[in-house]
Amino acid sequence: YLVSDELKLLNAYFDIMNLRYEKTISFITDIADDILSCSVPVVFLQPLLENSISHGILKKSERKGTVVLTGEQVQENLVFTIEDDGVGMSDEMLEMMNNGTYTPADTSDYHGSSIGVTNIQERIRLLYGFEYGVQYTRGSVGGTIVTVTIPVNH
Questions:
Q1: Residue range 82-117, pLDDT digits in tens
Q2: pLDDT at 106
């Protein structure tokens, strides 16, 4: 499974979601051509895109927004970021997501099981080790930035 396969899946998923929400969401991709043939875990970015839409953009009162996906090789790693301009997360939520202590009962402002994102973190760490995985930060204009780092595997 290649980066190009994941990108096709993400675009198809986004097209379906955008139709469902009457074209109120923009999806911008900036993936370096030289990583398109790199191997990646199957369906490892889609749950993150889903969260950006469902828990970020659709939680805004106007239910409109943008998700930007970037991907590049940085030294011996592939680094992907998914940034949305949604409602963002509290400091407490960011900390729990980053240290793996989040459970759905922890807060009332987040609805969902987080199984998808937890699964991604666990899969990446099982495949590549604990130095790789998913990191959450606050965006510069609100929203959330999710960074996924895995080793390059051609």
A1: 999 999 998 888 998 888 777 655 444 444 555 677
A2: 47
CA distances (Å), 124 to each of 21, 87, 92, 130, 132, in order? 31, 27, 24, 8, 7
CB contact at 8 A, 69 and 29: yes
Q: Which residue has the higher pLDDT, 27 or 96?
A: 27
Q: What is the 3-state secondary structure (H, E, C) of the chain?
A: CEHHHHHHHHHHHHHHHHHHCCCCEEEEEEECHHHCCCECCCCCCHHHHHHHHHHHHHHCCCCCEEEEEEEEEECCEEEEEEEECCCCCCHHHHHHHHHCCCCHHHCCCCCCCCHHHHHHHHHHHHHHCCCCEEEEEECECECEEEEEEEECCC
Q: How far apart are CA 150 and CA 154, in angstroms?
A: 12
Q: What backbone phi and psi angles, to 5 degrees, belong to 117?
A: -75, -35
